[in-house]
Amino acid sequence: MELLGIGAFAKASRLSPKALRLYDALGLLTPAEVDPATGYRRYAPAQLEQARMVAWLRRLGMPLARIRQVCALEAAPAAREIRAYWARVEADTAARRDLAAFLVDHLSRKDPAMTHHPATDTPGLALRYAALSDRGLVRETNQDTAYAGDRLLAVADGFGGRGERAGAVAVEALRRLESGDVPADGLLNVLQDAYELAEHAVHGVGGATGTTLTALLLTGSQLALVHVGDSRVYLLRGGELFRITHDHTLVQSLIDEGRLTEEEAVSHPQRSLLVRALGEGADGTPELRLHDAHPGDRYLLCSDGLSAVVPDDDVRRVLSGGTEPAPAVEELISLANGRGGPDNVSCVVADVVERGR
Fold first, then answer.
1. Other beta carbons less than 10 A from residue 196's beta carbon
2. How far is 33 from 46, CA to CA, in rounded Å?
3. What confidence score (pLDDT) does residue 103 get?
4. For 207-223, what is the mean pLDDT?
5. pLDDT at 335
6. Residue 85 or residue 158, greater confidence
7. 3-state DSSP assignment of residue 76
8. Cys-Cys link to 350, which of 129, 162, 163, 201 (CB 3.0-4.6 A)?
9. Do 156 and 301 meet the contact criterion of CB atoms below 8 Å apart?
């Protein structure tokens, strides 16, 4: 079989000679023959398929180290790896798209050319709310914290030896936002500062302990979200239920990468393993976002003691049942305990209403 020189092979594979030399150095695409005197590389025609695969994967933006892993696999597992990689890319792109949309909206609000008309602007909004936390039927103590106030809604799910204290100090650090003016154009910055105080407070608890933290802060017609961990926020709008937080768990990461289905995740033995949380040595990077609130919206903040055992359809039924927030939180906790109450369960339900009504 006649070998191809590096120039001919580069032309046939649509890879540059420079790229071929790099891939050789990385052990990704080794020539069939290298002249010991001149170092000239020659390739077998059979290597064209692998070279083209490398070129295609580079066009996807896949890192070279991962390409090497994919190329070492048989066809079926290689396809699964590519599917998982692309699912992760799409998830990251969606997160960046949300951030870009926020920045465009944020800067547009500051643009003097963007005039606002009082007759059409959304009026000031207020919250009607209820919060309740329950030990459940299995745990000896309750490490959850649930809080609802005129402007702040929060849930924390502590873990470790002093988890109850960790959750409590995290929420307490945010409660100072209830007093004082929070400018709408600096809402996320204020929330970020308060979150850093919460992180510092949790570290001060000491020991192998930590907490999730999920909160909403209302200013004018906007709600600012801060979220880390696997507590959740749901929005009921127009009869439809939307989850507006993303679980920071190992299982959710596997789902995002296409390695696990939603159905498989329900019974996964590590479904509660966090990849982000507040605590010493943990990745505490929070999600921070703004949401436009509408009169008639209903928000639910809950710990995984609810979301892990009560299906979304049941949550939607309770939230859309027309009851006030207090009966709704009681019914949701009753549903969790009716399914064995395996964990502490906390719920905050808040209705968005026009101020003064």
1. 13
2. 13
3. 62
4. 92
5. 98
6. 158
7. helix
8. 129
9. no
Of 142, 273, 86, 280, whose CA–CA distance to 200 is shortest? 280
The mean pLDDT of the chain is 87
Burial grade of 248 (CB within 10 A; 0-12, 13-18, 19 or more): buried
Residue with tokens 């979150």: 195
Among candidate residues 351, 350, 345, the one with its CA nearest the CA of residue 135? 345
How long, in residues, is the chain? 357
List for the chain the helix, strand, coil content (%; round to 5).
45, 25, 35
Edge-to-edge strand ranges of the sheet holding 298-302: 125-134, 345-354, 298-302, 232-237, 240-243
Tokens representing residue 324 in the block:
């006030």
122 or 277, which is more confident: 277
pLDDT in tens, 153-162: 999 999 999 9
Q: Which two tokens stand for residue 112?
A: 């003097």
- For residue 68, the number of C-alpha atoms closer than 13 Å in the C-beta half-sphere is 12
DSSP line for 203-258: HHH-SSEEE-EEEEEEETTEEEEEEESS-EEEEEETTEEEE-----BHHHHHHHTT
Distance CA 307, CA 68 (A): 39
Number of H helices, E strands in the chain: 12, 15
Of the candidates 244, 145, 141, 152, the residue with the CA atom closest to the CA atom of residue 201: 145
d(CA 198, CA 218): 18
CB count, 10 Å around CB of 313? 8
Question: Cβ neighbours of residue 182 under 8 Å, at least 6 residues apart?
Answer: 151, 190, 217, 219
Q: What is the pLDDT of residue 16?
A: 87
Between CA 254 and CA 357 the distance in angstroms is 45
**C-alpha span between 236 and 242 (Å, rounded):** 6
What pLDDT, on a 0 to 100 scale, did the predictor assign at position 331?
Answer: 98
What's the burial of 265, exposed, middle or buried (CB within 10 Å: 0-12/13-18/19+)? middle
Please answer whether residues 349 and 141 qualify as being in contact, where contact means their C-beta atoms are separated by less than 8 angstroms.
no
3-state secondary structure of 261: coil
